[in-house]
């Protein structure tokens, strides 16, 4: 029995080695048309330009956000003064 098991193990190992060394073969050549490749390249360039534009917009919006935060900090300390201005504006518009 030990001899049979050893024989089966040898056959299994040899089969495994045969599969490993034979592999799947070389990959077939790519059959993509030049038009498709050119369209893909143009799409990639377009997306890169859009990403650049978006980065610039984000930077500009972050600057505006920082300015608004500074304005808010300046105004936070003056609630009574602002309430008075609101009352005056309401009087001027006829709401009060």
Can you put this structure into words, describing what you see?
With 96 residues, the protein is mainly alpha-helical. The chain contains three helices and no strands. The chain starts with a helix and ends with a helix.
Give the terminus-to-terminus CA distance. 106 Å
Mean pLDDT score, rounded?
85
Shape: elongated
Beta-strand portion reads under 5%
By DSSP, the count of extended strands is: 0
Low-confidence stretches: none
Structural category is mainly alpha
CA-atom Rg in angstroms: 37 Å
Helix segment count?
Answer: 3
Query: For the report, how would you describe the main beta sheet?
Result: none
Order of helices and strands: HHH
- The helix fraction, in percent, is over 70%
State the gist of this model:
With 96 residues, the protein is mainly alpha-helical. The protein has helices at 2-22, 34-76, 79-93. The longest helix is centred in the middle third of the chain and has 43 residues, at 34-76.
Layout: helices, strands, pairs:
Layout: H1 2-22, H2 34-76, H3 79-93
């Amino acid at each position: 029995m030990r001899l049979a098991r050893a024989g089966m193990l040898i056959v299994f190992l040899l089969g495994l080695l045969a599969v490993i060394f034979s592999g799947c073969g070389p990959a077939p050549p790519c059959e993509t048309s030049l038009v498709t490749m050119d369209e893909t390249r143009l799409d990639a360039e377009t997306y890169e330009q859009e990403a650049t534009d978006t980065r610039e917009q984000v930077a500009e919006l972050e600057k505006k956000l920082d300015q608004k935060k500074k304005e808010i900090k300046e105004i936070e300390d003056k609630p009574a003064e602002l309430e008075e201005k609101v009352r005056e504006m309401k009087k001027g518009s006829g709401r009060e």
